[in-house]
Amino acid sequence: MNYAYASRTGNVESIIQQLGLDATFIQSGDETVDGPFILFTYTDGLGDVPMEVETFLMANGAHLKGVIVSGDTGYGDAYCQAGDKIAAEYDVECLYKVENAGEPSDIEAISKILENV
User: Fold this and answer.
1) Most buried residue, 21, 32, 56, 108, by CB count within 10 Å?
2) What are phi and psi of 47, to 5 degrees?
3) Are 79 and 44 in contact (CB under 8 A)?
4) Among residues 34, 31, 29, which one has the least CA distance to residue 52?
């Protein structure tokens, strides 16, 4: 399985590093992934999908198999909404929602999910 991620503040990048994944960093959205992949992303603004992720998915979305999303519960209903929006648009599952960079229990839970995807 391939992995791709977008990280603005470093939280998602920290998750990728803690999981020890070799993943494509989505910086401009022009990046590509060959074959099926899991997307790790943050939530922008008040529940928005980051612009670079939208651009990336336009070209690569057909291979998307699931999304893991980071957010901040301080934003209330907007918490991790980017993952819900992507999941609905691309008909995939939002596999996990994590607060910021997560806790060790989150990393363990995500690792188990990835083993079964």
Assistant:
1) 56
2) 100, 20
3) no
4) 29
Structure-token pair, residue 43? 């939530």
Number of domains in the chain: 1
Instruction: Write out the two tokens for 38.
Output: 């899991």
Q: Which amino acid is at 14?
A: S
Q: Which amino acid is at 35?
A: G
Question: Measured between alpha carbons, how far is 70 from 82 in angstroms, rounded to an integer?
Answer: 9
Residue in the structure block whose two tokens are 């999908």: 49
Q: At 38, give phi and psi (nearest 5°).
A: -105, 135
Number of Cβ within a 10 Å radius of residue 27: 11
Q: How far apart are CA 82 and CA 100, in angstroms?
A: 13
Check which CATH number belongs to the domain holding 37 and give it.
Answer: 3.40.50.360
> What's the confidence (pLDDT) of residue 19?
97
**pTM: predicted TM-score of the whole model, two decimal places:** 0.96
Q: How far apart are CA 41 and CA 107, in angstroms?
A: 15
Angle at 106 between CA 84 and CA 75, to 5 degrees: 45
